[in-house]
Amino acid sequence: MTPGTHWEVESTFDVSTSADVPDLTLGGELDARAEQVHHLSATYYDAEDLRLTRAKITVRRRTGGKDDGWHVKLPAVETSAGSTGRTELTFPLTDSADVPDEVRTAVWGYARHDELIPIARIDNERHETVVERGGSAIVEFCDDHVRGTRLRDGAAISWREWELELVDSERGGSVDVLSRLSAACLDAGASASPLASKLAKTIGPVDDVAAPASSAVASMLRADVDKLLSGDAGARLGLEVGIHAMRTSARNLQTTLNAHAKELRAAGEAINAGRPGSHGVEISSLERELNELIRMLGKSRDVQVVRARLHEVSDGYPRDLVPDSVRDRIFSELDREEQRTAKRVTMGLENPRYLALLDSLDDVIEAAGEMETPTDAQRVRSGRPKEIISSGKKGLGKGKPGAPTSDLVVQGAQRQFKRFDKARARVEDELDSLNLTLAQREELTHTLRKRNKALRRTAASISSKEMPQVVSLRSASERLHDVLGDVQDSVTARQWIRRISRRAEAAGEPTFGFGVLFEHERFSSERALEGFADEAATVSAAFKEMQDSQRKLRAARKAKSPKKGKDKK
Apex CA 328: angle with CA 325 and CA 333, to 5°? Predict the structure, then answer.
């Protein structure tokens, strides 16, 4: 069953029981419909450890009002307009109070195999007023009189709050109206609620999803797993934001695993030494599973990117060059392909293999937490170079949270840079010595693009306070990412144009417009490739500058520190 989706943008205010409702017409500029009263009752569900609540995810069964049913609210994100909103999924109301399979599936990545149990009941007498402009609804104002009960211990709390919610967040001027009505609420004696949800007020504040990671690498991995899960529910619905978030975080996880595979294996072996039947941390297996996830998400994401790209490109040409028949053929085929790939994503995320991957990622985060930061002496004994050093602060060794960058993270950047610089040298040599076609040049630079992505990811985890020069590296890597990303998007777009044009030709349709779009994309790639070598060289120079700066810093500190044995004289 496909749930309904709603983008929820709202503001919530605490208010005394005696406060008067503000002027919702803003002095006659807007219209306010007659107030309606609804009696709502909702039961909220979570795992025993409140993992959904900690992750800012809400699951509830609500009766009464105009939207009774099962609701799943996903974590809030900031909109392009600067307001904060949440995606809300709605499912039909069931007679049973047990969580339906469809609802469980929407939060499967978080709940895993744990049962979802009732944790709170919230009863609400809602006085609702719809605010309109020109006969069109803009904002719903809710004067809520609430009683919340914790089901674990029966503790209850009552309060009154005002809630403003946009009816259509895409409508022009609606965010401004919401802002002005919010100001009217504050002027009427309300205060912005520190706890935005009724559930949070009922059960009280809870800790974050997890305690601080005990190593810098564990922190990197955990952040990407959190981002992976944040996109889970949206990806199941084929939403661009969900698929993009999952794909990006899966790639980042791959990069971190690759950079620290040796240390993670050793830490995993130490953890599992006393566990019968344990096979330690299987990095290679984990990378293969991530590859499958990336491949599945990538097919859907590529279609989304190409569709948006070709919309923009085709809009730049008149109808006599790119006629409606060409546009209709392209977008109808891409729409069908997006639906097909979205179904594959949904099926893949419902596969037990995906849950096993999440469990393995939890294991590798545990192993990363046991990774000690090696001392200089240890690195010298092991033959590891000291080309980059930290600022002198201790890294995030076992049980020592707080420092933003560890030597292990720096070593990971060192490894990624060596791979990047080797790929850059190879690309430059072959471009200079061989007369390559555009397709061959694009294929050659694709490897460099992947190496730069890995370096870019690792550089993002280095503290700019400890290593200020990393800012230049990030900027250079970001510029190269944009250049080579544009090349790859052009390659994918041309593949689709060629494929669709052949079908149009077989159907007897004119294909000149496809040729116009194809040549536009070919020229776009040619232009992007003209400047990529300079951008790649800038990345290498920025990394080496960071190395040199850190060497000088180490030498200066060494010169200032007293030599051993002098104080004994």
Answer: 125
How confident is the model at residue 270, as a pLDDT?
Answer: 61
What is d(CA 288, CA 285) in angstroms, rounded to the nearest whole number?
5
CB atoms within 10 A of CB 148: 22
DSSP string for 424-436: HHHHHHHHHHS--
Residue 169 three-state SS? coil
Rounded Cα–Cα distance for residues 231 and 75 (Å): 9
Q: Under a CB-based contact definition with an 8 Å cutoff, are residues 286 and 265 in contact?
A: no
The CATH superfamily holding the domain 212-412 is CHAD domain (1.40.20.10)
420-426 LR contacts (CB < 8 Å, sep 24+): 420/448, 420/451, 420/452, 420/454, 420/455, 420/539, 420/540, 421/540, 421/543, 423/447, 423/448, 423/451, 424/448, 424/451, 424/536, 424/537, 424/539, 424/540
CB-count burial class (<10 Å; 0-12, 13-18, 19+) for 100: middle
CA separation for the pair 544, 346 (Å, rounded):
44
DSSP state of 134: T
Q: Give the amino acid at 501.
A: S
Per-10-residue mean pLDDT for the chain, 569 residues long? 80 95 94 95 96 91 93 76 75 94 89 92 97 94 97 96 91 90 96 89 77 74 90 85 91 90 77 52 86 95 95 96 97 96 92 91 85 44 38 32 56 90 91 84 91 90 84 94 94 96 96 97 92 91 88 80 55
At what angle are helices 532-560 and 470-506 packed, to 10 degrees? 160
What is the rounded CA–CA span in Å between residue 254 and residue 246?
12
Q: What is the pTM of this model?
A: 0.76
The CB density around residue 207, as the number of other CB atoms within 10 Å, is 8
Q: What's the confidence (pLDDT) of residue 70? A: 96
Q: How many residues does the chain have?
A: 569
DSSP-H helix ranges across 11-113: 51-54, 101-106, 108-111
Q: What are phi and psi of 61, to 5 degrees?
A: -115, 115
Residues 441, 527 contacting (CB under 8 angstroms): no
Q: What is the rounded distance in angstroms from the CA atom of residue 304 to the CA atom of residue 240?
A: 7
Question: What was the pLDDT predicted at 458?
Answer: 86
Distance CA 143, CA 21 (A): 8
In CATH, which superfamily holds the domain spanning 4-203? Hypothetical Protein Pfu-838710-001 (2.40.320.10)
Asked whether 188 and 21 are in contact (CB, 8 A), the reply is yes
